[in-house]
Amino acid sequence: MEEFEIISDILKGDKEKFRFIVEKYQQMVFRTCMGFVHDKDDADDLTQEVFIKAYQSLPKFKMESAFSTWLYRISVNASLNKIRKTSGRSFFQRLGSVFSGEDKNDPLFSASDMEDPENILIRQEHFHWLQKALDSLPGKQRTAIILSKYDDLPQKEIAEIMDITEGAVEALLQRAKKNLRTRLSDSDSPFVVK
Known about the structure:
Order of helices and strands: HHHHHHHHH
CATH superfamily of the domain at 1-88: RNA polymerase sigma factor, region 2, helix turn helix motif
CATH architecture of the domain at 1-88: Orthogonal Bundle
Strand content: under 5%
CATH topology of the domain at 1-88: Rna Polymerase Sigma Factor, Chain: A
Structural class: mainly alpha
Number of strands: 0
CATH class of the domain at 1-88: Mainly Alpha
């Protein structure tokens, strides 16, 4: 069944068909949110919020662009709003939950790591620096790099989502990569061999 047909059916009252939309786009929305908030629980919560917002706003969807583009916009906006409202759990809170055994499902840690605390610390430090570098990017650069690297979207689609030209996306990505390289080569960074 065509996506626009499903949306039309939902708008006519067939609410059960919204599950097709959720099933199709759930991973995409989660990846996008995760790229911004860096925390699985927060990304899960945001994913639910995005689908609730999408369902509530579905009558506003004009079917002039791809549904995925519209949903990406909602995902990016929800993620940015979350970041503005809260700074999220700190590195030390996350590290404490790993050592206390509360967060065994953290994607940064494997079962073998639980036997080697040094690996946990090294991986966590690298993740923290990457997260810090990504979070320090200006908003549009961060959005462009997340959509490009986390979601593997082509520049044309990123341009549609961000409502800018493809040339502007290319410029944002180049500046973001340059800024990330600069931040990751900082003398305090674990990526610099001392």
